[in-house]
Design brief:
Structural class: alpha/beta
Number of helices: 13
CATH topology of the largest domain: TIM Barrel
CATH superfamily of the largest domain: Glycosidases
Number of strands: 19
Radius of gyration: 23 Å
Helix content: 25-40%
Strand content: 15-25%
CATH architecture of the largest domain: Alpha-Beta Barrel
Distance between the termini: 7 Å
Strand order of the largest sheet: 2-3-4-5-6-7-10-11
Largest sheet: 8 strands, parallel, barrel
Length: 446
């Protein structure tokens, strides 16, 4: 093997012998998108999630104001920001409602293009039959006949619902047209029973509604930038058993990630919620979602505050390693400033500076910042070994990329990695320590 100095600026490399030299790793079920035509940058994002799953937790904030305050407090912007598509006005499609929806789309654009963070959206969808667009309109139930008709093509209820969906989709289309990947979490708390989209009599109608939305946005509108997140609702495990949970799940081919919204858990100490019929821990709720969808990554899609990271990563039995955990509140009593500072600076929380350059990865270009100027990094092989070592010794995140920018292998909290499976060729190695990183290239001769 020949190794090149890590102090050199990464230069453009002429791509040659690509088909023979590139090593292809098996694609896990977690990285196979529900949408076969998902755009490359969204697939890159999905694959990145897979590489950190169970090792790191993505730092998420709801709303850019909370994200900016988090940056002021910790020195770093969160890796992901979620907004809501709703226009939050008692009259849907009033000028106020429409302007608010547009503002949310503008915010998502800025999160991706200006902050270089991951944009996400949920949707408090006002019951289309009411004409309302505020929170109370989300909780006005449909009658059994209305729900049956809403998911039946040709009915008046179906027409009204689809027209409202179309109007919202016209705004989402702006993100699609800019090739902005979007974490899309519609019909959240889908089995909860408190929003109109939960058909408590016929769960199959809720499943039909999900599929109608998916087919319209993905197949008809060709919104292939969306990463679909299915989120269940908190509920007494004695009343919401696995059969109940499954009755609202559309199936693996209709979503990319699954999650659950959990409130009221002791996120600091025990990781438990005391239900009337017995307690449930974060880990038990995680296990429910994993049993529901074994091939999907699991997120804590809403919660009071980030669960205790020390307990999470020291394998406390009640704390789960979610892909991300999004606090609904921030800088309030349920999620105070001191807790935000403590948890969002934890070494296992991914913040925006920790993210790779998704745009470069998806286009095949590589343009990482050169840092660690005070250190002289070197790589060396051990004779008769396929181990690649980093000096000085330390605990680094090691990520190997092809010349296309495809992530081929990772090793976390290590100073060496096994590269036996790499075919001969040119590769990039990214070394990350905390929030600092440096990148360089090496050649494997045989």
């Amino acid at each position: 093997m020949v190794f090149m100095n890590f102090k050199n600026q990464i230069l453009a490399i002429i791509l040659f012998f690509i088909s023979a030299m590139l090593f292809q790793i098996p694609v896990s079920a977690q990285t196979v998108p529900a949408d076969p035509e998902m755009i490359k940058i969204s697939k890159t994002l999905l694959h990145y999630f897979d590489t950190i799953y169970q090792k790191k937790i993505i730092g998420v904030m709801r709303g850019t104001k909370n994200a900016s305050k988090t940056e002021e407090l910790t020195g770093e912007y969160p890796a992901m920001v979620e907004e809501d598509l709703s226009g939050w006005h008692k009259t849907a499609w009033s000028s106020t409602y429409a302007n608010t929806v547009q503002a949310h789309i503008n915010t998502m654009t800025e999160v991706w293009e200006k902050e270089n963070a991951i944009p996400g959206m949920s949707w408090h969808w006002g019951n289309p039959l009411t004409g309302g667009g505020d929170y109370p309109a989300c909780k006005i139930d449909l009658t059994e006949e209305q729900f049956n008709n809403m998911v039946t093509e040709g009915t008046e209820e179906y027409r009204i619902m689809m027209e409202d969906l179309r109007k919202h989709a016209d705004y989402l289309q702006q993100l699609t047209d800019r090739n902005i990947p979007l974490i899309w979490r519609p019909l959240h708390e889908i089995d909860g029973g408190w929003f109109w989209w939960t058909d408590k009599v016929n769960p199959e109608n809720t499943v039909k509604l999900w599929k109608i939305m998916y087919n319209y946005l993905v197949k008809e509108r060709e919104m292939h930038n969306l990463i679909w997140v299915y989120s269940a609702g908190i509920g007494n495990p004695a009343k919401k058993d696995m059969d109940y949970r499954r009755s609202y799940y559309p199936g693996d081919e209709w979503c990319d990630i699954v999650g659950i919204d959990l409130y009221g858990y002791d996120y600091r100490d025990t990781g438990i919620y005391e239900f009337w019929h017995g307690p449930q821990s974060y880990q038990e709720a995680f296990d429910v979602m994993q049993e529901l969808a074994p091939d999907k990554m699991v997120v804590l899609s809403e919660t009071d505050a980030l669960p205790n990271m020390e307990k999470t990563f020291h394998d406390h039995p009640n704390f789960a390693k979610w892909l991300w955990a999004m606090p609904w509140w921030a800088f309030e009593d349920r999620n105070p400033e001191e807790w935000i500072e403590k948890t969002y600076t934890h070494e296992n929380i991914v913040m925006q500076p920790d993210l790779p350059d998704f745009k470069a990865l998806s286009t095949g270009s590589v343009n990482y910042k050169m840092k660690f100027d005070q250190l002289q990094f070197s790589l060396y092989p051990v004779p008769c070994s396929d181990m690649l070592y980093v000096k000085p010794e330390g605990k680094y995140d090691l990520l190997v990329y092809s010349v296309y920018g495809q992530l081929l292998g990772t090793e976390y909290a290590a100073s060496a990695m096994n590269i036996a499976d790499l075919k001969p060729g040119i590769y990039f190695l990214k070394i990350r320590a905390g929030h600092e990183m440096i990148s360089g290239k090496f050649v494997k001769r045989k």
